[in-house]
Amino acid sequence: MINDLDSVDWAAMTHAYGPAGDVPQWLHDMASPVADVREKAFNSFYGAAHHQGDVYPCTVAGLPFLFAMADSPATPDRASVVALIVSIGREAVDRDEVEGFWISPSGEEHTACQDAAALMRGRGESVVGYARDADVRVRGAAIAGLGLFVDDAERAAGVLRDRLDAEHGITERLLVVRTMGDLARRLPAARVPAGEWFDVLADGADVDADVRLAALVQRARCVPGSIDDTTVPAAIELLRRITPVPRPEENGEGEESRIRTGPCTSPVGVSPDSDVPGHVAAAFADLERRGRVHAPTTSLLLTFHEVLDARVEDRTDLLCEQLRSPDAATRYDAISMARGLITSWRADHTHLVRILAECLLPHDSSTSAAAAEALGALGPLAEPAREALAAYVTAHRTTHRLDAWASPHAELRRAHQQAVLALAGLGDGRALPGLLTALDTGVDAWRAVPAAGRLPQAAAELTPRLIRLLADVDHSREWPGISPTALASALAELGDPAAVPALTDAVDAAVRCKQWRTASPVLEAIASFGTRAADALAAIRPLAEVEALTTCTAAAHAMWELERRPEDVVPLVQRLLVTERNFDAIDLAGRIGPPAAAVLPRLRQRLNEQLEQNARNAQDGSAALNDSWSLVHVAAALWDIGGDAEAPAVVPALLKAWKDNDFTARHAVACLARMGPAAHPALSRIQEELARPRRGGQPWGWDISLDLEIQRTCRSILRNLRNEGTSRPTA
Predict the structure, then answer these.
(1) Rounded Cα distance, 366 and 660, in Å
(2) pLDDT above 90 (res 272)
């Protein structure tokens, strides 16, 4: 069939990057006897015709040819072909259930997902055949398809039961059990037989522990009501059977087990390239690292955590077991799961943080780096790990070399750097030697710069070094090796006014090179020094007239902070407010306060327009997040300028924005805190925020420090409102 590729009008279709005329060549090359040619073809198809999971008409048109290749014993890499088929089918089925139609890059609607889903279900027997193939790689790629595309529940369940008996590899066996769960969730007719099968497997004394654990998890996944107080302890016991602690004699008397102490053996290496900035190379390495799974039970345990969801205590018990597993791969993969739990759920995570700190293992730099990075992401919640982090950093400096930050051993260097960054995040001065090494040697200095701002007690040592790096920035480059924005932010956090001349020079250089995205944050850094930066005014005033809106607004903000002359700044703000959604200008008006009363009519008009737009959006179901941002910024500025007289309009607007867009919470509660007694109508929403167990900003989540700040502000509002209520005279 591959010879019939020319019979399709590929040029009439598109993929992620334009006309699909190159798709037939990719399909042809997938069957090439040359491995490099095949690899390039698969990568091209995934990157364009199946870009980020998208399914286009050209993707559907390619499916018959992919099936033909998968059916042919002569195809060199049938497993990769089957994996591509299943990937396309999975995305098509998922999106067909949610969306029905899709939008092409040219803006045209199409039914590719529906078409692909129908085609896949029509080829269910082919999928069954692949799942029984003699090639284990083909079977591994196809098994998941039994739960997705075969509509005969009895047929699919029977094949899966047979496959479990026939498969010997742990990965394949766990996949079979997982697929039975997928089948039961998709087809009602499969639920009862699948549940009975899970019961037999989970409770079977003669069944391997890994299969029993998989069955227990899938039973909980398909019937959440089956989860009780025995579920997690049973899972922990099975996990221990899968990875038992070796006896001392297995590795010599008195010697710890190699399984217990051995490193996670899959570090990600990055080839040095002088043309690629360090932070860019590191970002790609992080993406590759986070996409890896090291233990065969990891996917299963991830599913279990998803099923357990809000059962935080149970999940913590399970994670403690995972993090203390004698298997290094299990420990490593558990670190990101622990991080996910802590960043998603509000609870006392002290014990789990301490267990994470136990993963700072001197002999395993990969695991230590992952643990330190996770701790660094926890912000103040990493406090219980402070001493462990300091001990780890100190041990590196004494055991390996004083400049361990610049160690030639890539994994050790990364582990040390992540531990230093986590320590700096806690404001601990013991991070200073590592940061100084970075700034003095230039080794991964880009990584140290943001952390330097967290140590204001060391400003005398850090500020001159950051100034030197800022002076060395080549502003003509689109992406300098060290971000001038990061340097400016760190200098602002350190708060040493000696940095103002260097920041002023940086603004001047950025403007000359028309690097407006750099000029604006550097101006914000200058503004943070207030009147101590008054000498920079002569350089800043002309920038309030430039065409770049963000730079013009930042210059106006700096002018206000440096000399507080409303007669100079308010006219600028009035002009800047002509542009829609200039939130920085709106915030500046609020910061000026009552002297900016001239802008009140415009802000009131903007608020009313926004509320009317929100009402229209609610009617047609097209509410936009940007509308919420407009509401919260305009409402806060109205209060800051107009005070109590604006409260009847401001409080409902803040609550509306907060309800529609959780990410506005910080701005909303900050304004409510400034409002004092006038915030009383928001009391129930404040109580609701403090009562919820899940952190805000889901499903993406937000920074823990932000969540803690929002909680602190809400508690302060609640306390003040209660005090205000008790202080009122009784009748």
Answers:
(1) 41
(2) no
